[in-house]
């Protein structure tokens, strides 16, 4: 599935000097004084209550270690995060050379939250989920895998500070961004949720027959085959059907979701994307514009364990993505909802 503007903004962080390094000590307003960490003394001061945007004060004379230094600021009481788990996090990243905030899921004035009035900042919208970062630990994706290395072994509900060098955490390509590999970068990461979902799985159960006018879905060795109804015009509005009903948790806006999926174009049945063919699923946050509107609308309110087929007209797909190869296409997806983060 092709990410929309939220995911693209996060990816764009790598095009500028940015992203990750942390060291911390606690505060009197919610953090704990825990400057032990791995790899020596933390030098960055992090204050603010857990669950709110942290305030970060850098030490101008600090030296940042090649091996990232991890400090637990506040210890959570949830499950311990392991390599290969999916996590949902809040994070703030600051470059040490200029004390510039490069990524911040707590507030992004260019991305009003769902339901916000035009011109209203995301942080000013109540009762609407914020865009957070959902990824698999240890796997390169939208951002380098090393960005989340510091959460391994930590508990859900923890606030973690990681301090290190951009060359180690982002990679040697930072030289092309005008940075030295030894430059420092700081991240404060709040571990909001975690899941051990198998990304190569698929849901189980007896599959329903297609409803009238809906595509027919059959499964082979490489995942689903989707047959668009012959001679049928594409629907003007989104159409969806639950083919297998799961009994897992209900998916709500703001959740991280792990899925397998395949997508074809209604007009010719041509496959344009399939996680099954790549060998494993993907994860994203639902209800915050991280995916096309048709996914946000169709998958919110479904249950883990559901298999859903959804036909998405262009206005809920890529109609606004000027020049996109699928801009004018009605899209048909089969989605297995494997887990929630």
TrEMBL record:
Please name the SUPFAM superfamilies in this protein's record: FKBP-like
A GO molecular function term, named singly, is:
peptidyl-prolyl cis-trans isomerase activity
State the organism of origin: Streptomyces lonarensis
Q: Where is the PPIase FKBP-type domain?
A: 254-341
Q: Annotated region Disordered: where? A: 27-62, 102-128, 198-238
Keywords assigned: Isomerase, Rotamase, Signal
User: According to the UniProt entry, which residue ranges have a biased composition of type Acidic residues?
Assistant: 117-126
> For this protein, what reaction is catalysed?
[protein]-peptidylproline (omega=180) = [protein]-peptidylproline (omega=0)
In which family does this protein belong, per the annotation? Belongs to the FKBP-type PPIase family.
The leader peptide range reads 1-27
EC number assigned by the record: 5.2.1.8
Q: What is this protein called?
A: peptidylprolyl isomerase
Q: Which Pfam families match?
A: FKBP_C (PF00254)
PROSITE patterns linked to this entry? FKBP_PPIASE, PROKAR_LIPOPROTEIN
Compositional bias annotation for Low complexity? 107-116
């Amino acid at each position: 599935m092709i990410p929309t503007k939220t995911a693209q903004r996060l990816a764009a962080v790598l095009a500028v000097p940015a992203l990750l390094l942390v060291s911390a000590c606690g505060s009197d307003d919610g953090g704990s004084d825990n400057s032990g960490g791995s790899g020596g003394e933390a030098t960055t001061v992090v204050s603010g209550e857990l669950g709110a945007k942290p305030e970060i004060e850098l030490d101008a004379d600090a030296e940042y270690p090649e091996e990232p230094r991890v400090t637990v600021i506040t210890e959570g009481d949830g499950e311990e995060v392991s390599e290969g788990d999916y996590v949902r996090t809040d994070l703030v990243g600051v470059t040490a050379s200029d004390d510039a905030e490069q990524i911040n899921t707590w507030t992004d004035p260019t991305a009003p939250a769902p339901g916000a009035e035009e011109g209203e900042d995301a942080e000013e919208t109540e009762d609407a989920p914020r865009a957070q970062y959902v990824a698999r630990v240890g796997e390169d994706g939208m951002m380098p895998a090393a960005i989340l290395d510091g959460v391994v072994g930590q508990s859900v509900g923890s606030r973690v500070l990681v301090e290190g060098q951009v060359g180690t955490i982002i990679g040697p390509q930072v030289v092309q961004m005008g940075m030295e590999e030894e430059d420092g970068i700081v991240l404060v990461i709040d571990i909001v949720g975690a899941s051990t979902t198998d990304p190569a799985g698929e849901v189980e159960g007896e599959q329903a027959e297609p409803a009238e006018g809906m595509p027919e879905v059959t499964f082979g060795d490489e995942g689903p085959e989707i047959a668009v109804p012959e001679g049928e015009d594409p629907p003007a509005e989104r159409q969806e059907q639950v083919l297998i009903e799961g009994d897992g948790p209900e998916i709500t806006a703001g959740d991280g979701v792990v899925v397998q999926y395949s997508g074809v174009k209604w007009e010719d049945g041509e496959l344009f994307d399939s996680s099954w063919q790549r060998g494993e699923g993907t994860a994203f946050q639902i209800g915050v514009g991280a995916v096309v509107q048709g996914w946000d609308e169709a998958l919110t309110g479904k249950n883990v364990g559901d298999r859903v087929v959804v036909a998405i007209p262009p206005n809920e797909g890529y109609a606004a993505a000027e020049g996109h190869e699928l801009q004018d296409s009605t899209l048909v997806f089969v989605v297995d909802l494997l887990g929630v983060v």
